[in-house]
Amino acid sequence: MSIRLAFTTAMMIFVCTLTTQRSHAAPPQLDTPEARQAAVERSLLAETWVEGHAFGLRERMGILDVPGISVAVIRNGQLDWAAGYGVRDEVSGQPVTAETLFQAASISKPVAALATLRLAQEGIIDLDAPIQDFLVSFELPESSFKGTVTPRTVLNHTAGLNVSGFPGYQIDEPIPTAVELLEGKGNTDALARIEHVNSRFRYSGGGSTMLQVALSDATGLDFNSIMQSRMLTPLGMTQSTYEQPLPIESWPNHSAAHDYSGRRIVGGFHVYPEQFPAGLWTTPSDLTKFVLEVQALAAGHDGKVLNAEMGKEMLSPVFGRVGLGLFINEYDGQPWFGHSGSNFGFKCDFRASFSGGNGVIVMTNGDTGYELCQDVIRAVAKVYQWPGMIPEPVKEVPMAPDELRQYAGDYAYGPDEVAFISFDEERLMVQQLPYPQMPLAPIGNQRFQIVGTEYHVDFSDLESGTPQSMSMSFAPDQHAKRVETDDAWPVQDLLHENTAEAVRRYLQMHEADPNDPVVGRARLTQMAMSIQMYNQPETAQALSECITAMYPTDALAWDALGQTHFQRGATQQAIDAYEACLRLIPEDTSLTEADRDQLQSRAIARLHWLRAGHP
What we know:
Layout: H1 3-11, E1 21-22, H2 33-41, E2 53-54, H3 57-63, E3 68-75, E4 78-86, E5 102-103, H4 108-121, H5 151-155, H6 178-182, H7 205-219, H8 223-232, H9 275-278, E6 281-282, H10 284-298, H11 308-314, E7 327-331, E8 334-343, E9 346-353, E10 359-364, H12 369-383, H13 401-405, E11 409-414, E12 417-424, E13 427-431, E14 438-444, E15 447-450, E16 456-460, E17 469-472, E18 475-483, H14 490-495, H15 499-512, H16 521-533, H17 537-550, H18 555-568, H19 571-584, H20 593-611
Helix pairs in contact: 2-12, 4-8, 10-11, 15-17, 16-17, 16-18, 17-18, 18-19, 19-20
């Protein structure tokens, strides 16, 4: 494995921020929601964190390629603050607000579970009766596995059913009905029993889809109408719907879904006819109303939807931590309930206490958003002093500035693969394109923690106190050797802000050997996009123009140049680049069919936006 591949694999998710802060002064007074919000925004913590170091929300979003995020925090039994950050659609650049709808993915399940329990409370269904008693439209295939499948066993995932999750459907695809899904006529297997009932926990979104059909059979209502009448309207959740597909004319302030690189997916988002397990569109602020209802039930009170007795049923776990639609965990000996969610291009999570009225809901519109959700939850837990949620920190070992400077230098793994270690004021920084500068914290024995990640750097071969090689913990057998400026590769020119020389040398290398992997289109494009992300627009533009000069018939190269111009606000240049991209797509044989569809979709959408006069 090359060090670039190792670095890409390791750092795609676990990467840290550009502007990590060190906290030396006493914390400010946090006596207002605004002050607490600001503290959370600057206090994000990775799972492995260095004491005294935290990092900022917006920078972390950029590093993880998450275009947008929405957060709501509950304190003392009421909404403390809610806010959106970033953009809801990377094509249009329109901002996320607290009112922007996201797909809730599997958080749909606990919300739908509340409505299911309401129907049980009304006597329309029986939680412990065979589900087939009121499931008319579908018959679960007979099986040799023991036990009776009931609504209760479906809600707590002990029914022994298959089909854990769903890929969704592109918006222009034929969308199967819920019954067709259960029959295996969609893009998932037919629902079937594969284990004994109550033998163990087995997560089944397919079981939830069956319950969706059963509730409609029992009430004679479509599922969205059930949710509106039994759950959303009573709780005042006016910014929530289970409609699939989402009628965007009714809900214009909705988020698009984005892939692992932060690009909008074809069609904007996937459709989920599996409404019970994955179909809710909502906001963190609206989910707060659901959380407060469950917290009232946890306190033994009647809620707006359920009475206290039914609430106790919901919050009584089996197999240690599984309630009816919810997961229950303990932190510092205190129970909390929650659920995470993962649809294509959307990741979300929430956590709320049984007592004390505390909670946090986080929703993102990027496939790498789960890590960001956890970072935000840890930041909220730290600022609001919720015990038991933050792991113990790694301790930093003090080092004098002169000692730290000995480690600075360029370390090469191979052709144009160089780690740049620099000394910045009071700390060391590491950078290896296409990734940002990342702070290094000394933790002893020539080892430095990469702040905000679980990884560290080891230096070795010290000569007169100056190390001659280094390795990173995700690839410990691959050593980078210190190189001098005279031995520089073009990437070092980029790192040292000598852009013109880097471009000249890349063009020269491509002319000498077009197949040289150093000047591969995909590699250089990734570098240009990352440089743009890390606020070096002139360098990104120069490198992008260099790439289109090398690969004038490559549609992806022109797409990257269009992206660079768009982010710089250069409207006409962006239009020219995207028009070139569209002209080249039909003839570009290097594109897969999926690449072709996605590239054409985003180029058309971006051109529509730019030609409409938007910046």
